[in-house]
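Q: A small favour: would you put together sequence and structure tokens for a protein?
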Amino acid sequence: MKPVNKTFKVALLSALLAAAGVASAAVSEKEAARLGSDLTPFGAEKAGNADGSIPAWTGGYTKVDASFSNGGKRSDPFASEKPLYVINASNMDKYADQLSDGLKAMMKKYPDTFTIPVYPTHRTAAAPQWVYDNTKVNATHANLKDSRVSGAFGGIPFPVPQNGEEIVWNHLLRWRAPAHHVDVRGVQTTSAGQHVPTVYASGDFQMPYYFKDSNNAEFEKDNKGVYWTIRLLNYGPPIRAGEAIVGRENIKAGAGQTWVYFTGQRRVRKLPNACCDTPTPASAGISMFDQTDVFNGQTDRFDWKIVGKQEMVIPYNANRLFQRPSEKILLDHHVNPEDMRYEKHRVWVVEATVKQGQRHLSPKRRYYFDEDTWAAVLADHWDANGQLWQMGFQNPIVMPDIPATVSPMNFGFYDLISGAWYLDGVLNDSEEQYKVMPKYDDFTFTPEAMAGEGIR
């Protein structure tokens, strides 16, 4: 992989900080002043690239379709566009520098079916002005010490990142609707191409970190650092109907909490280690907790190294994926390329290596973070033998009503060894998809509330 725009100064600083064990600090007022100037309010390069294949950011996409109703299916604003070109097994060498190892491996494994249609690039990322304002404040106040973020609230914590772990926290604390409901539908596909539903659930999500009427002091005091809460109540498949899970992610490493309700036991149990390579109940144990949204784990488990910034082909503006019935988009070995949309964007490339004394089923990983949204859109996972094992992905879609470009829990992974794969957020057949909600009350995300609703 050959970076196009390698940030030598940042990478060197990252290495020095890691070697010295020094915590990262907020940037100067001068550096923060770049936000909204040559950088976007979130810290991406505002200008386009040299050949014009990546345009300049001009404020994102905020035009709401007149037919849209909250919770309904969002239309595809770029439905009339055709691919500029299609990358496949026969021409992939021409685009090698723009492809992740996982994408290249998938084309080699399934040369007859796995292709990458590349569409015109649209920099749709947007957020309310108050989120931009908070991001600028965070730039000069946020700190990271012992894998714990402090001094940040209501915006991207490190819009001018100094090391790889800050970029990961930008992903974890990226802008989304503060409270929303999503129908959660997950499908495991076996190596033989059999589609097996693993979860059909009602999902409630909330980010106290983005409560507009709050501030940093209240967030850290009243919410005790809990930045993300989730509650899933399973309706199916039948064998799992009635099960439930409540999770509370914390800005302090290891302080998160997760409870599950099992119908057979009629009891709520707290998971001892809902982290990292622990299997998730929602996926019937076939994916790990930190594969949710490509990465949702503890940052203290790995050493994080910035490889650089690179122009790459990534899933983006994927509204087209949700327009057809699910039976059309799920092929035997991967998502139907006809329903995928890839674009060329600049991404931060960050490598994760498990720390000495720690363990993980995937001790080496490489993540690709979109510069405009900070979302991790692709990931390569190597196993303990150094073999490329899995490719993680998620599909951000345009949601101008929020406004945001964010994945509605549509993420998954391909097992490059066994051939099995998993896709979450299969919302195509759902009447209600990503619905913006008013603020939930505190009781919603408690084990007591879950126990009351999970019984069958």
